[in-house]
Amino acid sequence: MTFDFTETQLMIRDTARKFAEEELAPSAAERDEKEEFPYAAVKKLGELGFMGMMVPEQYGGAGLDTISYLLAVEEISRVDASCGVIMSVNNSLVCFGINEWGTEEQKQRFLVPLAAGKKLGAFALSEPEAGSDASNQRTTAVLDGDCYVLNGTKNFITNGANADVILVMATTDKTKGPKGISTFVVEKGTPGFSVAKKEKKLGIRSSDTVSVAFQDCKIPRGNRIGEEGFGFKFAMKTLDGGRIGIAAQALGIAQACLEASIRYAKQRRAFGQYIAEFQAIQFKIADMATKIDAAQMLSLKAAALKDAGKSITSAAAMAKLFSSKIAVEAALEAIQIHGGYGYIKEYPVERYLRDAKITEIYEGTSEVQRIVISRSLLSN
Ligand code: COS
């Protein structure tokens, strides 16, 4: 076991940090306030190779490992968690599945532009009545000649309003439960596909979250990824990797909280001294740093297992469960350290709290992660 990053991993981390500081930091708070999608930043992330980091170069990606990806999402989210999730969804939830299970033709058509950042992807599993209970899919896909006809509604779709390509899970055989779900690629502009409601959110407000609707939406049979009935496993395996991305997002937010707290504690004076000199503040900072280190170890372990081709189901769930928990805790402590200033928008920590909370909810709630972890321990 080694705790050293490779030169490439360090280079990626530094590049992501520089980009985040220079390009995202000046406008992150304003975009959050105005709920503005970061079009220019996403374009530049694509040019840097950050939208298809683990996709082989032959398919337009950067051909990097999961650890590099983790470090990049962490650095981007440290400054702008909205950008972090836009990037994470495209990498983990969209590019991954097409690269893993797509045909050569599907890779050329869909993966190449997605991985190069020329197109943006979204992942549509959740429905009004299928969130944690993901196999309870109501959206249907019926084979009609050489086409599938999709009907249904998906909600809470990150990137949904801006996506060129959406991976959609739909039921092809109701009688088979999870084994009757399949995955399809739907392209923007397909008749019968529409973006419905845009959500107004507590946090990650500059990423877009929408409902999408399919009404007799006809897509070519060749847009099905994998066999009929593979859709639920496709979603679960894809989400395993996605959870590493969200763990990284949470880690970035937590790190931002720690750094903001240290900065503030060293410049704020009370009772005749800097508040950093009070043990009450010192202990909070020590606890935050220790938890961030532990969460990073769990996340790096999951990423390393993925790079080694091993099962990550439980490790990724642990990484997300713990990292998201400590991100919320770190944000609460950061606000406490800032006192009244932590509660107002002049300082960034209130945004960190709003952004941190979603990491305990999307891509599997903390309760779902505990189901996944406990099942792996108790099933044998
Ligand atoms: N990798 C591969 N296969 C998996 C898997 C994984 N991580 N998780 C489940 N499966 C397989 C199971 O092995 C089972 O297949 P077999 O019958 O062939 O063994 C099948 O999928 C059904 O699994 P299971 O019975 O565990 O399904 P459940 O309906 O009980 O669901 C949970 C389990 C709750 C873990 C799942 O629905 C889940 O992760 N929900 C959260 C979904 C989510 O993250 N939503 C966010 C949307 S994206 S923002």
Can you summarize this structure?
The protein is an alpha+beta fold. It has helices at residues 7-24, 28-34, 39-47, 66-79, 81-101, 104-115, 231-267, 279-307, 313-338, 349-357, 366-378; strands spanning 121-124, 140-144, 147-158, 165-171, 181-187, 193-198, 209-220, 224-225, 269-270, 273-274.
| Terminal Cα span | 28 Å
How is the largest sheet built, in terms of strand order?
A: 1-4-5-8
Taking all Cα atoms into account, the compactness measure Rg is 21 Å
By oligomeric state, this entry counts as single chain
Helix content: 40-55%
Can you tell me the number of structural domains? Answer: 3
Number of helices, where a helix is a run of at least 4 consecutive DSSP H or I residues = 11
Main features:
Butyryl-CoA Dehydrogenase, subunit A, domain 3; Butyryl-CoA Dehydrogenase, subunit A, domain 2; Butyryl-Coa Dehydrogenase, subunit A, domain 1; alpha+beta; single chain; 4-stranded antiparallel beta sheet; 10 strands; 11 helices; binds coenzyme a persulfide; 380 residues
